[in-house]
UniProtKB/TrEMBL annotation:
It comes from the Bacteria. It comes from Hallerella porci. SUPFAM superfamilies: ClpP/crotonase (SSF52096), PDZ domain-like (SSF50156). SMART domains: PDZ, TSPc. This is C-terminal peptidase prc. PROSITE patterns: PDZ, PROKAR_LIPOPROTEIN. InterPro entries: ClpP/crotonase-like_dom_sf (IPR029045), PDZ (IPR001478), PDZ_sf (IPR036034), Tail-specific_protease (IPR005151). Residues 105-185 form the PDZ domain.
Amino acid sequence: MKILLVILFVIVWVGCSTDTVSNATPMITKTGDKEFNYAYTFLYYYYYLAEDELKSSDYYLTNPDTVIDKEEYADYADVYCMFREMSDLMTQYFPPDLFQKVNQAITTSPVNTKSFGMELDENLRVKYVYRFGPAATAEMKRGDQILAVDSTFFSTDSTDFTEQYQSVLQKKTTDDFDFTILRGKDTLKISMTREDVISPTVYVDSIDNIPIIRVTEFTPITNGFQNDGSAEEFEAALKETDGAKSTVLDLRGNPGGSTELCTRMAMDLLPAGDTAFIQLEWKPKGTERSIQASYFVNDKDGLGSGRYYVLLLDGNSASCAEIFATAITSNLKAPIVGETSFGKGIGQVYSKTPEKGYAVATSMLLFDKDSVSYHMFGLEPDFTIKNADSALTTAVKIAKERKEKRTAGYSERVNSYWLRVKRKAPESVEERLRDWTRGLAIQEVSVE
């Protein structure tokens, strides 16, 4: 069990002058351009290490040694340098030309290009049909067996149907296809046109009558939903599997997302009165910078409360996925199968800037219901199994027996990611974006 650890690094970066300057004062700058003023105010109120790291505004505005990655970012050099000076790995500034990419990462699940809006197993049997997309429009059904595409029948002698299928799709220069499928005893002809399709984030499957609900991220806009996508999908999955005594929750590879959504989804599984997690948050209170503690307590029995749950996690289960997992394990003692999770027990706020850039700052420290932090360490599995298929098999077996309770705690080893030096070398903004989206626990704010 770990109490909160915050490591402060003494960092030297060639891109910014390292002269000692006094810490920020309560007075927000009145000089500089609108983008800088907004970003400085944002950090002052929300960045949890601002008292120790944010210097006077003049330091960033007059610094002669600012070096940036691309010449076109020269107009934002002072803002760029200021955010680089903050030691926290997740506190970042993204200039306006990355607005669409950042907005996509924050608000929308991945878009599949040239997609039919369905997923197939290795035998070309339909596993999932998305709510919206060509397959849904054509009334494809789960369990349909694809026999042929454009009159090319797939050889029953082959052990790799997927390769044959992809070969047919890749050879064609247009997006219109005719499918021959087997549904039960009936052979049907169905036509579909590929298009760009937003992916779902929640998938329902089953093994030996044990429901398996896989959650890939916690995102507002998903296939068929425009506001609370992942939560709406998850609640639909709980209704679909209503009556099940046990369920496997697969969060492997889930990088996180919206704190509002993962909190709501965790509450869906808890009985009334359970505390999902505790949050310390830096934010303005009037004109003052303040620290506020919040306890997220369920006010009613959740839609899926009363079931026995088993969690699947791995090293890429991060941030909001860990908030969700911690709420379930600390309250329900649900066992974990797989690998140690990423270990991100901090959360961020983000804000659109006047020039349509994005400012992001770590402003939240997250704790389980017992006020214990897993930050930098992650959740240790009760059953350590690296092989994905073996882990799933074990999780299903445990769910069927419903006897195991969580006994493991948080890892004793710090994830090496948290020992990285943020400014060791100037990296591209694209690299920072990829790294940043690895573990999201975010909520939007606006600076007045």
